[in-house]
Amino acid sequence: MKIFAVTAFLIGLMLVISVLMDMVQGLSLMAAIQNNLNTIKMTTFAEWVTSFIFFLVLLKEAISLRKLKKNNP
User: What is the C-alpha separation between 15 and 18, in angstroms, rounded?
Assistant: First the structure.
């Protein structure tokens, strides 16, 4: 579960930095947020597949680490 927490934290941090950089360039807060959400809407099928595989690998790692901790107290 730590892997998911770190991943979520890093993604959130990147989104905040991206919004702040857009605001420095002169966009309003709402325009900066919409600018970041547009990238999600415009992803291609290959990018969705790659993201899905990435999250599957993260899930597999989290499950295997959890089983390893349960077997070795």
Answer: 5
Chain segment 51-66, per-residue pLDDT in tens: 899 989 988 988 888 8
pTM above 0.70, yes or no: no
Q: What is the spatial distance between Cα 2 and Cα 32, in angstroms, rounded to a whole number?
A: 30
DSSP state letter for 5: H
Which residue ranges make up each domain of the chain? 1-42, 43-73
Q: Cα separation of 35 and 33, whole Å?
A: 5
Closest by Cα among 40, 41, 24, 22 to 32? 22
